[in-house]
Amino acid sequence: MTLAEYNSAVDQHADGIYRFALKHLRDEDRAKDVVQESFARLWTRLEQVEGAKAKSYLFTTAHHVMVDEVRKEKRSTRMEEHHADIRHTSQHQPDLKEVLDNALATLPAIQRSVVLLRDLEGYTYEEIAELTGLNLPQVKVYIYRGRTALKEYIGQLDLVL
User: Fold this and answer.
1) Which of 27, 54, 82, 154 has a 20 to 30 A CA-CA distance from 7?
2) How many angstroms separate the CA atoms of 91 and 104, rounded?
3) Which residues contact 31 (CB under 8 A, 6 or more apart)?
4) How far apart are the two ends of the chain, measured CA to CA in Å?
5) What pTM, to 2 d.p., does this model score?
6) 100-145, pLDDT tens digit by residue?
């Protein structure tokens, strides 16, 4: 990969990776860190990665970085999450984005990733299989189960009203 191809990859894919990471992690700073780490890893492997495969490499790397982040998060506790109830004492109507984000948070990490790659980023099943290292039937099953869980979560009227 040349320097021009790398710069082009930054211009073309940084926003998509950021959206993917933000939907997955629901934290702007951590999403920015995922984007930065993905491009840093691409930079270190500039000689090994072809310019045409930069998008695939970046999203695969972002997926792996996010999985690592989720694993780290399970081992640590964020104080903001413990005090969330104190900050939100007033009753308000949740907006659709908030309901969807909460629904996505209930999904296991792999289901969330494949659903976001398919429905948010528009990847084909084959591309998702390549990015995540899963086989095609696994991708289809995870997407189906993720969508079903989202539909059930959102379908509960008390969460939307």
Assistant:
1) 27
2) 22
3) 18, 21, 22, 24, 25
4) 51
5) 0.55
6) 888 888 888 888 889 988 888 888 999 999 888 899 999 999 999 9
- The tokens of 126 are what? 């084959």
35: nearest Cα among 7, 8, 63: 63
pLDDT higher for 97 or 37?
A: 37
Q: How far apart are CA 122 and CA 70, in angstroms?
A: 23
Cβ atoms of residues 27 and 78 within 8 Å? no
Q: What is the pLDDT of residues 28-86, one digit of tens each?
A: 888 899 899 999 999 888 888 888 888 888 888 898 888 888 777 777 655 555 555 54
CA nearest 119: which of 161, 150, 87? 150
d(CA 126, CA 68): 23
| Conformational region of residue 133, where left means phi above 0, alpha means psi within -120 to 50, and beta covers everything else | left
**Which position has the token pair 């930069």?**
54
Give the CATH fold of the 91-161 domain: Arc Repressor Mutant, subunit A (1.10.10)
